[in-house]
Amino acid sequence: TERLAVDIGLSPLIATDRGDLLGRGFLRLLAAYDTEIQTIAKRAQREGRKLSQVPEYREAMGRLRGFLKNEVNRLLNRLVALHAPAVLVVERLDLRSPELSRRMNRLLSNFGRRYLKEKLARLGELYGI
Question: Which domain of life is it from (predicted)?
Answer without folding.
Answer: Bacteria
